[in-house]
Amino acid sequence: MKSNKLKIELGDYFRKGKLPKSGCLYAIRINKEKHIVEKHAMLGSEILALIGQTAETYFLVQKTKKGKEFINPFDIVDFTKVGIESFIAQPNACKVIDLEQFYKEDRIPVITYQYIIKINTKRFTVSEEKMTGRQILALIGATPESHFLRQRTKGGKKLIAADQEVDFTECGIERFIAQQRNCDEGFVSDESFRLPEEDELFLKNLGLPAEIIKEGATRWLIIKGYLLPEGYTSSKADVAILLHPQYPQVQLDMIYIHPAIQRVDRKLIRQLSNQIIGGRTFQRWSRHRNRGNPWIPGDDNISTHLDLMMDCLKAEFKKR
User: Is the previous residue joined to 259 through a cis bond, with omega within 30 degrees of 0?
Assistant: First the structure.
C-alpha cells in the first residue's frame, strides 16, 4: 500500500537550510543511490545494511555543513536533527586515497573520506573531493596571482585556473605542479634533438602553424599567429623560442616576437633588442627565470615557458 506520508529529500533540505520533520519518509543518498526509509533515526550498521554491507568490510561517513565525519556501527543518526547532505560508504581500504598511488596502479578514485594530493614534492591530506585551483595553491601558502598551477595526468600537464574546480574522483591525477610567476629582466649568458612527445602534443593541440628552423648550430621553434596579452599594438604575432641542443634538460629562455610590438599607451618597455631569425627581425624580450622559479626538467616544457613569457608581458603594466 502506498504511504501518504510526506517524503523528505535530506539533500534538498540540506541545500535549503531547512530542518527535516519527524513522522515522514526520508530519502537518503548513499554514494549516488537513493534509499527511502521510514525511521527518523538509524544506526550506522543499519544504514550500511541498506547497500548490503557491514562495518567489517565497509566504513560510513556522513556529509554535513561541518564537513565529513565517521559514523560508527552503533552511532545513531537522527535525520530530524542533523543537517545531512548525503552518506559515503566505501571499502575500509579506501578511507584515505593517495591520488599518486592510484594513478600508478591505474585505479579510479572514488568519493571517500580523505585524499592525499601531491603538490611539487610535498603531500597534503584533504577532506573534500573537489577543490579549486586557489584552494589547492593555498595549501602551500601561494595564490593564483603568485603561482601557476598545473595538474599532471596521463594526458599531459594541464593549467588550472584560479576558480576552476578539480574533481579528485573523475581525473586520473598524478600530482600538481605549482610554479612562481616571476622572471628577471636583463642579460643572462646563454650556456644548444626531436621535440619531447608532450611538446609535439601541445603544438598539435595549439592549432597554429609552427616550424623548427636551423641556422648553423642553432635551432628555433617559430609559432605563427600566437595570441598576445591585451595592451599591445598587436593582438597576435609570430613568436620564436631558441631550442638549446640539450633541451629539455637545459632550460628555455626569453621570447622573440615578430613584428615588434609596443604598449598601446606608448610607455617604455625595457630590455628589448633585435634578433635576426630566418631572415626576419624579431624583437627579443630579455626575460629570464630566477632562483625563485628555476627550470625543472620533466615539469617544464614549451607550454610552461610560453605561459611564463606571456605572464611577463602582462606584468609590464604593473611595473610601469
Answer: yes
Provide the mean pLDDT of the chain. 90
Kindly state whether residues 265 and 168 are assigned to the same domain: no
DSSP-derived 3-state class of residue 57: coil
Q: Domain range for residue 296?
A: 184-319
Same domain for 18 and 36?
A: yes
Mean pLDDT along residues 207-236: 93
What is the Cα–Cα distance from 263 to 96, expressed in whole angstroms? Answer: 51
Domain total of the chain: 3
In a domain, 218, yes or no: yes
Does 1 reside within a domain?
Answer: no
- Give bridge partners of residue 204 from the DSSP assignment: none
DSSP for 14-45, please give it: HHHTPPPPSSSEEEEEETTEEEEE--SEEEHH
Q: What is the pLDDT of residues 1-29, one digit of tens each?
A: 456 778 889 989 888 888 888 889 999 99
Cα 132–Cα 136–Cα 142 angle in degrees, nearest 5:
120
